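Exercise: predict the structure of this protein bound to zinc ion.
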Amino acid sequence: MRAALWSALFAACGSAAAATPARMPTLPAPHQPLQCAEDAGWDDPMPPRHLFGDVWYVGTCGITSILIASPQGHVLIDGGAKLGAQRIEKNLRALGVDLKDIKYILVSHEHFDHVGGVAQLQRDSGAVVLTRQEAAASLKRGKSDRRDPQFDVLDPFPAIANVQSIKAGAGLRAAERTIINVPMPGHTPGGSGWRWRECEGSVCLNFFYSDSVSAISDKTYRYSDAGALARPMQQTLSRLEKAPCDVLMTTHPSSSHLIERLEGKEALVQPQACRKLAESAKTALKLRLSQESANTAP
Ligand SMILES: [Zn+2]
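Solution:
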């Protein structure tokens, strides 16, 4: 299916952006070693890293944030936790990126550990925040509602301005690539993945930024209740399983060994990674549903 293009198409850039191309990131020298503990906290800082093409890791040791750079304006995915904006902005500055050149912030899901820094990042950049319609109200309010499996135990986050909805399967054009929204409800009602084809010279790879796929909840929520997220999660996992996926990135880097892959300890390109992540999440969901039917869910 041909993706519908997001209508704004960097409209915010206007003609001024065309006249003055965005400054492209450059690797700071000297190359600082990564010092992430195995049980790294969400706000533990790490220096930025180049992934491939014009894609950069600008998150922390515990929470992923991705920069997709283009002379027409940059795109950022996710904004980290409490200190997310501070950490991400420091990394962007280290790469020589002007925050005002960020035109869109794409969001995975409406939980404070991934959007805690988005309000400030949006303020400092002036970017449009793009999400699925199911997450938009929560992002604007800074709090989820009872449709969220973890509602009773979630921390609020700073309310986000300039939130717009993107249709499932629609695309955002950013220079020569189209970043496509992949609906991934299950962990939350409004979860999104984002995929695109990234090229470096003549080599092109399918990049997939997966939302969290864990079926965890507070003490009252039941995935198996009518209208709850069991069925949407199964559909999400089928989508993840079949996705074009050479390079998997996950909202928590540990879920895809992203730090190890950035350090060169494991291969960056792992074409089976989406399928494997989907399989393990399917097994966990089955267990969860059987626990609910036996009244032994945690
Ligand atoms: Zn979450």
